[in-house]
Amino acid sequence: MDTQRWKSLAAVAGRWSAGLLFAALLAAVAALAVGRIGYGLRYEPVLTGSMSPGLPTGSLLVLAPVDATRITAGQVIAFRPPKPYGEPGGAPVVHRVASLTQDSGTTVLTTKGDANPVADPWHIDLASGTYSREVAHIPYAGQLVILVRSIGLTGFAAIATGFLALVLAARALRASLQAPAPAAEPHPVGTVTSNTGTSLPQSPSPRTDGTPEARPRAGHAIPLPEPPS
Predict the structure, then answer these.
(1) Domain ranges of the chain
(2) Which tens digits make up the pLDDT trace of 39-49?
(3) 196/189 Cα distance (integer angstroms)
(4) 43-139 is a CATH 2.10.109.10 domain
């Protein structure tokens, strides 16, 4: 297979790869939007290694609302710690339920990070909180959420637009470099192009049969054929 064919195949593969990647991103965004709107799902990035190795830092957690009465020991849940450990509206903590105990008719929730040596210092009244349970997690996808939150949605859209423009410009440049050069126009037979671009008459080619070429002599007229009677 020649080099030109390999280049053509590589260009086609590159276009298909870029198209498939863009389609996959659109499908992922659409799925997240449907889950958020239709099923009340939440998406939280894993910011620390307290739940590693099961939930590594930078993963994206998919969380679904769960009623407090359905929480059991061993579940991974998202919640907001009570004061003084947390503030209303602050970032939720995602830890595993270590125990559920009864204290004077109140169910007390204790949690623990899988990578932490001891349980969390707080004890939560189960009936006083709002909780979500882990449905799934997507490795590395949480980095994108962290980036969007740090620069804002407008900044992220500007970066994505600039990146797309660079990709399109690179593809256009590659296509122009791979385009074949235009073929030179052939000159008419019997003419020679001068340096100024004008066509000059070309001298007759020498005879190849050995017969000397007839040339008029100086001072002699060339006989002309008689017209037919």
Answers:
(1) 1-40, 43-139
(2) 678 888 999 99
(3) 19
(4) yes
